[in-house]
């Protein structure tokens, strides 16, 4: 006889309960079932920041406050370097400072929208960012 594991509990519903009336937040309805967000999504979104914070805590415990403070100031200075508004930054300097330049992750090859080419008129974008309207 096959026993079902206690750790695995099916949460997906097989039938969408579509109704026209307003329901309580605890009642399953069509929108709440379609707007299901996976539990690991938030963990994956915050992975790089969480890993950086843990690395800085370990560095502080091993080397003292000076090393993580200097690295934090270097990273802050790297983020402040700007480009013209119509050019998107690749954040290469921040990737080098945090060590992400040595990794190949999903963000590198899945074609995120921020890596798409934006064909905008450079003069119009700069004038808009400076507040010059003709």
TrEMBL record:
Belongs to the POMP/UMP1 family. InterPro entries: Ump1. The keyword Heme does not apply. GO terms for cellular component: proteasome complex. Pfam families: UMP1 (PF05348). This is Proteasome maturation protein isoform X2. It comes from Drosophila arizonae (Fruit fly). Keywords: Chaperone, Proteasome. The keyword Chaperone applies.
């Amino acid at each position: 006889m096959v026993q079902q594991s206690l750790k695995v509990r099916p949460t997906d519903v097989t039938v969408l309960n579509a109704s026209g009336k307003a329901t309580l937040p605890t009642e399953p309805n069509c929108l709440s079932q379609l707007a299901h967000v996976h539990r690991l999504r938030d963990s994956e979104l915050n992975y790089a920041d969480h890993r950086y914070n843990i690395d800085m805590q370990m560095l502080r415990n091993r080397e003292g406050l000076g090393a993580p403070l200097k690295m934090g100031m270097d990273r802050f200075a790297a983020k402040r370097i700007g480009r013209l508004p119509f050019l998107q930054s690749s954040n290469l300097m921040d990737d080098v400072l945090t060590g992400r330049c040595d990794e190949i992750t999903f963000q590198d090859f899945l074609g995120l929208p921020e890596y798409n080419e934006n064909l905008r008129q450079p003069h119009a974008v700069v004038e808009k960012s400076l507040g010059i309207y003709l």
